[in-house]
Design a protein that fits this description.
Elements (H helix, E strand, L loop, with lengths): L1 H8 E3 L4 E3 L17 E5 L5 E4 L17 E6 L5 E9 L2 E2 L21 H12 L22 E8 L1 H48 L17 H50 L5 H33 L7 E4 H11 L1 H6 L3 E5 L5 E4 L1 H18 L5 E9 L2 E9 L5 H4 L23 H11 L3 E6 L4 E9 L6
Parallel strand pairs: 1-7, 10-12
Antiparallel strand pairs: 1-2, 3-4, 3-8, 5-6, 6-8, 9-11, 12-13, 13-15, 14-15
Length: 469
């Protein structure tokens, strides 16, 4: 609106430009408190008309027809913004003021009446002349010479408003952040309450009450899954602790029995003077008991090393068929005393890469159990073959007091089918658990089954070309 008004107050006769502006008409430029600023320039950038003191801005003729904005600073140090645009003075050669006191200014674009008339003639002939336009009758009613206009206004109020908005934004952001932290604290505290209760419950569990389980039905579904896993862990801990407790009791029992035998033998021999042959017989009996005790201790140590992963393999080519026959022959005397016989079904030669010493220990324990628990006057069948890269060995014998319920306990440590433990000192109940651990170390498997005729079959399977794990 201001630019239109200002254009109507600026006149040109084609060679000069003059302004009929009155300062009373635009009080925003003449007020004493923070006045605005305007300036009309010629093409050379020389002010033709201006108000107040010039702000500290770079005055330059603008290019094109789009307004150009820039920062400004007034002489009184007020910050501001300025815009440069074009205005078109009114062409009025008849009403131009010829007062010598106000001769007007000569813009560079039009230097003579002849040049101005030439522009009019070109327009009348239909040529396009920058800064002109026609009405509907195709008649030139006015000719506007575009002149640069600069308007400037201070931005104190705007800056203060922006500062207030920034302050409110900072306060709002800080308050939102504090409220968010408080809300997160409350939510996390409420959300972690089930975990805290679960942790408090677990802290009360020790080896005196491992049978206790975590019960928290009000907990969320996510916590219920965790509680279920913790209860399963407590189940395993209880089973492991009971096994260790029973292990200590069983070891004490197994070692107390041979020690009691040694003590009683020594007491009987020393109760009165005896012949040298009787002393020799007592010493031989003590040596037998010592060897059996040593065997129990060695098996316990081997089992402990296997459990801790500290047992290493010494692999070499092993002739399994020969090893089976040698182990069976070493037990012929014990088998004959119970009327037992061996039937070997082997496919020689059977050779694999494995730890021969550990393989011998496995075969000896399995065959010794067969000789001990097989029905008297029966036959023990031993089969071995090497097919498809797998060595399969089976030891089968009839045992009428074995059934499927017995199979579940055969690999428990210190469990024995001899309920009365009449064989204490000879069988400690760790033979099959030891075999199971050794076969696993050899990257194999061991299994036991009982058929309807109470024939117990113990089978082992290990890779024939990769026996070492």
């Amino acid at each position: 609106h201001f630019t239109l008004t200002l254009s109507s107050l600026i006149e040109t006769d084609g060679t000069r430009v003059q302004s009929d502006m009155s300062e009373d008409e635009f009080v925003q430029f003449t007020r004493s408190d923070r006045p605005d600023f305007y300036c009309i320039l010629d093409a050379r950038g020389i002010p033709l008309e201006q108000s107040g003191s010039l702000p500290e801005i770079e005055l330059y003729p603008i290019q094109g027809h789009q307004p150009a904005f820039q920062s400004a600073r007034f002489r009184d140090k007020r910050p501001g913004r300025a815009v440069s645009l074009r205005i078109f003075p009114k062409y009025d050669p008849e009403g131009f003021d010829d007062d010598e006191s106000n001769p007007g200014r000569y813009p560079e674009q039009v230097s003579s009446n002849q040049a101005w008339n030439q522009r009019i003639d070109d327009l009348e002939k239909g040529s396009t002349v920058e800064g002109t336009h026609r009405d509907d009758s195709n008649r030139v009613d006015s000719l506007h010479l575009p002149l640069p206009l600069i308007l400037a206004r201070d931005t104190l109020e705007l800056n203060h408003s922006l500062q207030r908005v920034s302050l409110w934004l900072i306060l709002a952001t800080s308050l939102t952040l504090l409220l968010g932290i408080a809300a997160a604290s409350v939510v996390s505290k409420v959300g972690l309450l089930p975990l805290e209760r679960t942790a408090a419950y677990i802290s009360q569990v020790d080896f005196q009450n491992l049978e206790r389980r975590i019960e928290f039905p009000q907990a969320p579904a996510e916590i219920q899954s965790l509680i279920g896993s913790l209860n399963q862990m407590l189940d395993r801990l209880e089973v492991g602790y009971d096994r260790e407790r029973n292990f200590s009791a069983n070891v004490a029992h197994e070692l107390r029995t041979p020690l009691a035998g040694l003590k009683s033998t020594a007491e009987v021999v020393l109760s009165r003077p005896r012949a040298p042959a009787e002393y020799r017989q007592a010493l031989q009996q003590c040596l037998t008991i010592s060897n059996e005790t040593e065997s129990i201790i060695e098996n316990l140590l081997m089992l402990a090393r296997l459990d801790s992963g500290g047992c290493e393999l010494d692999c070499d080519i092993c002739h399994v068929d020969q090893l089976i026959r040698m182990t069976g022959n070493s037990l012929l005397e014990a088998a004959s005393s119970r009327g037992l016989g061996f039937v070997f079904t082997l496919e020689p030669p059977i050779r694999i890469l494995t730890d021969g010493a550990k393989m011998k220990l496995v075969l000896h324990n399995i065959l010794e159990n067969a000789v001990t628990y097989a029905d008297a006057n029966s036959t023990i069948f031993i089969r071995a073959n090497n097919l498809d890269g797998q060595l399969r060995i089976e030891v089968a014998n009839r045992c009428t007091h074995f059934d499927n319920s017995t199979l579940e306990k055969m690999f428990e440590r210190f469990w024995r089918a001899d309920i009365a433990r009449s064989l204490t000192g000879k069988h400690s109940g760790i033979g099959l658990p030891l075999c199971q651990s050794l076969i696993r170390l050899l990257n194999g498997q061991i299994d036991v089954r009982v058929d309807q005729e109470n024939v117990v079959t113990v089978g082992i399977t290990i890779p024939s070309h990769n026996g070492a794990n």
